[in-house]
Design goal:
731 residues, Immunoglobulin-like, Serine Threonine Protein Phosphatase 5, Tetratricopeptide repeat, five-stranded mixed sheet, 24 helices, TPR repeat, coiled coil, membrane
Length: 731
């Protein structure tokens, strides 16, 4: 009697549970169109292109007015997410217009780090980074510890921008593998701030998609398409776009991008990607309801997967079997799952299969479900028993729970209540065991998340310490789409304004260029004018010397002087049209001129010309007749009036390979006393030679950026003697 009562209780329990669930589902499934807007909390301005999602359900984005509409139910959690502000979670309590105010996310600029050339430091960094990559899929904490060690500052050493980029890329890889896409986004951004890298940018776009920042992901992928990508990178970008559009339910764009990726993969013969993309196109068509097209691509992916390794083949068979399940083609599904089981059993025991669906217990369970869907309960029972046995051996409580419950329901439906009761009791035990395990996993996950966050904070602390001694910079990603204009008039106005600005810029640039060219031409004319004035001045002074010889009836001396003077005049006239001559020629002219002056005033001074042997005279150029006025001043205004015999020194010394110093030194009466000897008429007239020379030097320095530097000073403390120094640069 008790046994009969218990069986009735089980039947009532199942039926009441189902009826209660139906009532609950009918209440919860009463959906409505929730409308709202997202605005900036500070400016109250609407924010477009924001990710709006019902947790586990619908997805949409805000329009250009910051508004959205999404299918929702009471109790759903609304998630408002963007890379530009803090994520907002909102529980829907009623069907009313929702206004969501958001706060901008706080960002910090990354510091500038100088490059290091120390091989020891570089080798240590690489060792730590290699160790981090080795433990990436095994031990996240240890992997992050190695990255931290790589980034730790050493005394007297700095970390280069490229090293920082590699370290943060590795951190992003760790976060992405361990399902922490939010941290991965931050680390990939840090990597790109330190060094631009297309592969890292692709990873950032994928991390955005995994974190459900779909609009940011699409924007990042589209920006990458404008870069110069390799064939493989182009495939990854199009594939990423396809994945993102598939995630937001846009089947048309998903298939379009998958097809672009497939075409590129075929063009570049990237075989593994060809298999994957056929499979993904099949999934996208299946999601859109185009079942015949989906089956065609799945057939292609199965054929291609067979040509690869066994693991790839069984993975594809499982995926296609899921498609047949959705399409209710259970016979084909069962056939593929049977083949999958055989290949799984034939694989090496040491081979690891990352996909949790590719396990014997899961495949047996799905085969059983396919039989149940066809109401072939007795054929399903052996597969459920195999699934339970395999799950128990592998400690897979989730599959074991589902299989035991399904077995209990089958026994109930076929009237074997004893076995149904026994299976249900086992189900309760597994549920309790699974509950304990889940609690442990949640605790471990919380502890793991806390430890990872602490290690991330340690790295952030290292960065903050480094910021105390290093300058900061900010490299922001500006990915903005052009705002659509309301009408053609606005577009025309904006285009016209841009054209006018460009024309103004062009006119200003042309005017600036013309002014610059005219100024240069004026300078050249001024130089030629001053140079033409130098020759008559020089000839006049020389003829005065000849006149003085003739005046004292010294015809022989006058003839000799005229002979040397004619040689000097020939050289001066030969160089009169040149802007610059080699220093060697200028020295020859100077030596000839000094010889003539000494010939005239031999009782007044001796002279000495010294040239540094290291100077390569043919490599330096100088304006012709630049030094002569300074020598003339030394003789005529300094040495000529000295009572005892004076000395004129002309020295050419090399400062460096690009610069020489020319010194003209006399021990004459000095500039102050010389001025006293001048007549009233001489005082009123400025020296033509010196005035022209100063103007020439000023113009030359303006045109050629300080080519010649001149300094004049007294030699002795009593203001006697004059020293002229000219610094001449090669270029």
């Amino acid at each position: 009697m008790k046994k009969l009562f218990f069986l009735l209780f089980i039947v009532v329990l199942f039926s009441s549970e189902e009826s209660f669930s139906q009532v609950k589902r009918s209440l919860e499934n009463k959906s409505f169109m929730l409308k709202g807007e997202v605005i900036d909390g500070e400016t109250n301005m609407p924010i477009p292109k924001v990710n709006v999602e019902i947790l586990g359900g619908q997805y949409t984005t805000t329009n250009f007015s910051g508004r959205f509409a999404i299918s929702a139910k009471i109790g759903d959690e609304l998630v408002i997410k963007s890379d530009d502000f803090v994520t907002v979670y909102y529980t829907i309590k009623e069907n009313d217009f929702v206004t969501v105010r958001v706060e901008k996310a706080k960002t910090e600029s990354a510091p500038v780090v100088s490059k290091t050339s120390q091989n020891g430091r570089q080798a240590g960094f690489n060792v730590y980074l290699d160790s981090a990559k080795f433990f990436l899929k095994k031990d996240a904490q240890k992997s992050i510890e190695y990255v931290t060690k790589a980034l730790e500052p050493k005394r007297g050493q700095t970390i280069s921008k490229k090293e920082k980029s590699l370290a943060f890329e590795t951190l992003g890889d760790i976060n992405l593998f361990w399902s922490q896409p939010d941290l991965a986004i931050d680390n990939f951004k840090q990597s790109l701030q330190n060094s631009s890298n297309t592969d890292v940018a692709i990873k950032l776009a994928k991390a955005f998609a995994q974190n459900k920042n779909y609009q940011e992901s699409i924007s990042e992928f589209q920006k990458l398409l404008k870069d110069n990508l390799s064939g493989y990178q182009k495939v990854e970008v199009y594939e990423g776009l396809g994945d993102t559009y598939k995630a937001i339910g846009d089947g048309v764009k998903s298939v379009f991008n998958y097809q672009k990726a497939l075409d590129t993969a075929k063009e570049n013969r990237i075989t593994p990607k060809i298999t994957n993309l056929n499979s993904k196109i099949g999934e996208a068509y299946a999601q859109s309801g185009a079942l015949s097209e989906a089956e065609e691509y799945f057939d292609n992916s199965l054929k291609l997967a067979k040509k690869e390794n066994k693991q790839r083949a069984v993975s594809e068979k499982n995926k296609v079997a899921d498609f047949y399940n959705q399409n209710r083609d259970y016979e084909k599904e069962i056939q593929l799952r049977e083949e999958t089981l055989e290949e799984l059993n034939s694989m090496d025991k040491g081979a690891t299969v990352e996909d949790e669906a590719l396990t014997p217990q899961r495949q047996n369970y799905k085969i059983a479900n396919a039989f149940v869907a066809q109401e072939k309960y007795k054929q399903a029972i052996p597969y459920l028993e195999k699934s339970i046995a395999e799950a128990d051996k592998k400690e897979d409580l989730i599959v074991q729970k589902d299989a035991v419950r399904k077995l209990s329901e089958i026994y109930r439906d076929i009237g074997e209540f004893d076995k149904a009761t026994e299976s249900y009791q086992r189900y309760v035990e597994v549920v309790d065991e699974l509950y304990i395990k889940k609690e442990q996993e949640i605790s471990q996950a919380a502890r793991f998340s806390k430890e990872i966050t602490q290690k991330q904070n340690r790295i952030a602390s290292l960065e903050n310490d480094r910021k105390l001694n290093e300058s900061r910079y900010k490299l922001a990603f500006e990915n903005q789409e052009l705002i659509q204009k309301n009408d053609r008039i606005q577009k025309w106005i904006i285009g016209s304004l841009i054209l006018i600005v460009l024309l103004l810029f062009f006119a200003a640039y042309t005017q600036y260029k013309n002014v610059k060219q005219q100024k240069f031409a004026n300078n050249i004319l001024a130089l030629k004018s001053l140079r033409s004035q130098m020759n008559p001045h020089f000839i006049f002074n020389a003829l005065n010397s000849v006149n003085s010889f003739i005046a004292v009836n010294d015809e022989r001396t006058a003839n000799k002087y005229l002979t040397d003077f004619s040689l000097l005049m020939r050289s001066v006239l030969e160089n009169s049209e040149e802007d610059f001559i080699h220093l060697e020629k200028e020295i020859e002219l100077l030596e000839l001129y000094v010889k003539l002056e000494h010939f005239r005033f031999k009782d007044k001074f001796d002279y000495k010309i010294s040239i540094d042997e290291n100077i390569k005279l043919n490599e330096f150029v100088i304006p012709p007749m630049l030094l002569q006025p300074y020598v003339e001043n030394a003789v005529w205004h300094g040495l000529r009036y000295k009572e005892e015999k004076g000395l004129l020194e002309i020295n050419f010394a090399q400062i460096d390979s690009e610069t020489i110093k020319i010194s003209i030194i006399d021990d004459g009466i000095g500039r102050s006393k010389s001025n006293e000897f001048k007549t009233e008429n001489q005082k009123k007239q400025k020296s033509k030679g010196m005035g022209n020379t100063q103007k020439r030097i000023a113009i030359l320095n303006q045109m050629y950026k300080d080519k010649v530097d001149v300094k004049v000073e007294n030699v002795f403390e009593n203001n006697e003697g004059t020293k002229v120094e000219l610094i001449l640069k090669k270029d």
